[in-house]
Design brief:
Layout: E1 5-9, H1 15-28, E2 33-38, H2 45-54, E3 58-63, H3 75-94, E4 99-103, H4 105-110, H5 116-125, E5 131-135, H6 141-146, E6 149-152
Parallel strand pairs: 1-5, 1-6, 2-3, 2-4, 4-5
Helix pairs in contact: 3-5
C-alpha cells in the first residue's frame, strides 16, 4: 500500500476525532497505528477506549506537559516536543507501523516548540508504505503544500461559546 500525508486543520471541532476514526479504521484492516500526542497529557476518553479495545494494533504515546500553552513555552514543554519528534522518527524507522498520527503537531509548530522544517523533514523521511497524519489548528502553508490531503474543519457554531464546558465522552 502506498502511504500519503494527510492534514486535519482549522478552527472547528473534529480534527482529533477524524484522526482517531482513521486509526480505528486502519486497525479494523489489521494495520498497526502509532499516535503521538504532542501537547496533550492525561487520560482522555478516546485514549482509554483505544487502550482498552485496540492495544494490540494502536499505540498511543503523549509528549506534553498537560499545561495550556499560549505564549512563551517553558523549557520542559520545548523538550517534550523534541522528545516527541525524536520518538516519531524512531517509530517511522522501525517499520512496525503503517499509520503514524502526529496529533497537535501543527499547533506545536505555531507555538514555536518545533519548526515547520522539523515536520517537513518527517515527510521527506517517511517510507513509501506509511500513511502519516498531522492534526491541529493553524497548519503552516509549507505543510499544506507538502501534504497529499488537507481537510479544514471550520467552526460555524459551537455551544462552547454559550458557556458549555467540555463534556466527558463528547469533547474529552
Amino acid at each position: 500500500m502506498k502511504g500519503f500525508v494527510q492534514i486535519y486543520t482549522g478552527n472547528g471541532k473534529g480534527k482529533t476525532t477524524a484522526a482517531i476514526g482513521l486509526a480505528v479504521r486502519a486497525a479494523g484492516a489489521g494495520l498497526k497505528v502509532f499516535i503521538g500526542q504532542f501537547i496533550k497529557m492525561g487520560d482522555y476518553s478516546e485514549i482509554k477506549a483505544l487502550k482498552a479495545r485496540f492495544s494490540d494494533l494502536i499505540t498511543v504515546e503523549q509528549f506534553g506537559s498537560g499545561e495550556f500553552i499560549r505564549e512563551n513555552a517553558s523549557r520542559e514543554q520545548i523538550q517534550a516536543a523534541g522528545k516527541g519528534l525524536e520518538r516519531i522518527r524512531e517509530v517511522m524507522a522501525s517499520g512496525e507501523y503503517q499509520v503514524i498520527i502526529c496529533e497537535e503537531a501543527n499547533v506545536v509548530v505555531s507555538l514555536g516548540l518545533l519548526s515547520v522544517e522539523d515536520l517537513l523533514e518527517l515527510i521527506k523521511l517517511k517510507p513509501e508504505n506509511i500513511e502519516m497524519v498531522f492534526t491541529g489548528r493553524g497548519a503552516d502553508p509549507k505543510m499544506i503544500e507538502a501534504a497529499d490531503l488537507v481537510t479544514e474543519m471550520m467552526e460555524i457554531k459551537h455551544y462552547f461559546n454559550k458557556g458549555v464546558e467540555a463534556r466527558t465522552g463528547i469533547e474529552k
